[in-house]
Amino acid sequence: MLEKVDLSKNLSKKEYKEKKDELTPVLSQLQRDCKRLDIPVIIAFEGWEGGRKGILINKLIQALDPRGFKVYATDRETEDERMHPFLWRFWTKTPAKGRMAIFDKSWYRRVLDDSLEVEKMHEYSDEDYNEIVSFEQQLSDDGTIIIKFFLHISKKEQGKRLKQLDENQATKWMISEKSWRRHRMYQDYLVKYEEMFQRTDSDFAPWHIVEAEDENFAAVKIMSTVVETLSQAVADKLSSMHAEAKPQRMDVFSMDQSLKTSILAGVDLSKTIDKETYKTRLNELQNKIKVLHNEIYLQRIPVVLAFEGWDAGGKGGAIKRLTEKMDPRGYAVVPTASPNDIEKAHHYLWRFWNEFPKDGHIAIFDRTWYGRVMVERIEGFATEDEWTRAYKEMNDMELQLAHNGTVILKFWLHIDPDEQERRFNDRMANPEKQWKITDEDWRNRAKWHEYEIAVDDMLLKTSTSYAPWIVVEANSKYYARIKVLETVVHALEEALDQRAKKNKRSKK
User: Fold this and answer.
1) Residues 361-386 as b or e (16 or more Cβ within 10 Å = b)
2) For residue 245, is it within any domain?
3) d(CA 89, CA 81)
4) Can you give the pLDDT at residue 122?
5) Who contacts 493 (Cβ-Cβ below 8 Å, separation ≥6)?
6) Is residue 109 domain-shared with residue 203, that is, in the same domain?
7) If we measure between CA atoms, which residue out of 102, 99, 77, 73 comes closest to residue 87?
8) Statement to judge: residues 272 and 349 lie in one domain
9) Is the Cβ–Cβ distance between 459 and 263 less than 8 Å?
10) How far apart are CA 104 and CA 75, in angstroms?
11) How high is the pLDDT of residue 123?
């Protein structure tokens, strides 16, 4: 496709000025419209080295209010970014509603420059493309407008521009031996770009090829594309806001709940252990975790431990016993409350991406992203389309973490209604624990059956080989704590064993 693109297109200075003056006020107004309508926008620039991305980005933003956008140059990873999944640094930079994020090079570096580095070629595969498409799909489904530009120039023009930069003392720093090596590999990159278009061009995040040999033509095409895309986005948003109410759906048959598959119904909550056995086993396991914690740090294995469960199910107690002998510099406990205004302005997974651990560290979540399919589903904070879509989104997110080598364990601490009521009453009777009980806890209890259905759906749809749910029989706090610790010990030992085998193979 790229070889057939007509690169001779150009505009005179006069034509450029006329079109720029025509487009500038329109683009300025569209930025204000996007802010007013809470439409987040991502504009990503990719293309050949020497394509003058910086110059063309600068021409685009002249029409924009600088308070409403941010430009990110993502050519080189920081040390912190290298210690996270590759999409982490882009998730954390996704814009809030009504704002724009402009990327000078983007997540596509993973399948472009990186994949053609000889020492890294074996590391990149289909999963990278799958993760990229999932990333864009999730953002688009949440309302983000994604515009992707590819700045195209010929090999001859690229060589000319690289030479000009290399011979100028003021710009020589921009050119390295790697730049010339990539120029010599122009045809190899051409093949990779064609594959990239084929695999990632979609209706929700399309590619726009920009003939970039003439700077004036390229600048006008970029502005025109942004204006056209944002005009449609604003029109669509206004249409959806003013659309007539949909007619009520006809009643449909609903299967009796007793016929549906249930996980929780089969949990044996009578399991328990005596206090002396508990103390002995707790000490043994905590000492093991202390050692394993050091080893996963040395091997740079990241760990995510996610805790969910009924109110008063014992999450806090389990987390406390888990961390008592761990080095506090190597783990973080992340309590998850209702999202604040900043978090609400982003994709619902954004706040969790910001908390995921770097290599060798542990993140422990006290409540998690699964609130989307529990409290948000039941209380109506998420639409049916949103929470139904969330099962795949969360599975995809966890798969991306797993591809980075992250150990993921998800615990559901299960108790029965009688045990919950007893614990609620104990808290109310104890002045030191009254802070733990709220009116919301009682309201949630009244919806026990609804939550039970939601939890069963969650366990069935999101327990995977790479991020399993562990249902913990938690009527007995002693038994629950030991099961959690035993599960963590086993998972860390297995991860270390797999890493040792991998290291051994790599030395052969």
Assistant:
1) bbbbbbbbbbbbbbbbbbeebbeeeb
2) no
3) 6
4) 42
5) 292
6) yes
7) 77
8) yes
9) yes
10) 8
11) 53
Contacting residues for 81 by C-beta, under 8 A, at least 6 apart: 88, 89
Binned at pLDDT 50, 70 and 90, residue 258 comes out as low
| Helix, strand or coil, per DSSP, at residue 183 | helix
Q: What distance in Å separates the CA atoms of residue 407 and residue 411, rounded to the nearest whole number?
A: 13
**277 and 156 housed in the same domain:** no
Half-sphere exposure of residue 60, counting CA atoms within 13 Å on the CB side? 28
Amino acid (1-letter code) at residue 1: M
Chain center to CA of 176: 33
217 and 306 co-located in one domain: no
What is the spatial distance between Cα 19 and Cα 12, in angstroms, rounded to a whole number? Answer: 11
CATH number at residue 471: 3.40.50.300
Answer yes or no: do 360 and 471 share one domain: yes
**Residue range of the domain that includes 204:** 2-239
Q: Based on the domain organization, do 228 and 337 belong to the same domain?
A: no
Report the distance separating Cα 104 and Cα 95, nearest Å.
15
Cα separation of 336 and 262, whole Å?
Answer: 27
Q: Which residue has the tokens 């009643």?
A: 251
* Euclidean distance between CA atoms 69 and 99, whole angstroms: 6
Q: What is the pLDDT of residues 298-315, one digit of tens each?
A: 999 999 999 999 999 999
Q: Are residues 185 and 270 in the same domain?
A: no
**Whether the predicted pLDDT of 252 surpasses 90:** no
Residue 253 inside a domain? The answer is no
Pick from 207, 239, 271: which residue ends a domain? 239
Mean per-residue pLDDT, 379-384: 94
d(CA 268, CA 419): 14
**Cβ burial 237-266 (10 Å sphere, 16+ → b, else e):** beeeeeeeeeeeeeeeeeeeeeeeebbbee
Task: Map 406-472 to HEC letters.
Answer: CEEEEEEEECCHHHHHHHHHHHHHCCCCHHHCCHHHHHHHHCHHHHHHHHHHHHHHHCCCCCCEEEE
Helix (H, G, I), strand (E, B) or coil at 99: coil
Same domain, 217 and 361: no
User: What amino acid occupies position 238?
Assistant: L
Domains of the chain: total: 2
pTM reported for the whole predicted model = 0.89
In a 13 Å sphere around the CA of 233, the CA atoms on its Cβ side amount to: 31
> What's the rounded Cα separation, in Å, for the pair 15 and 234?
28
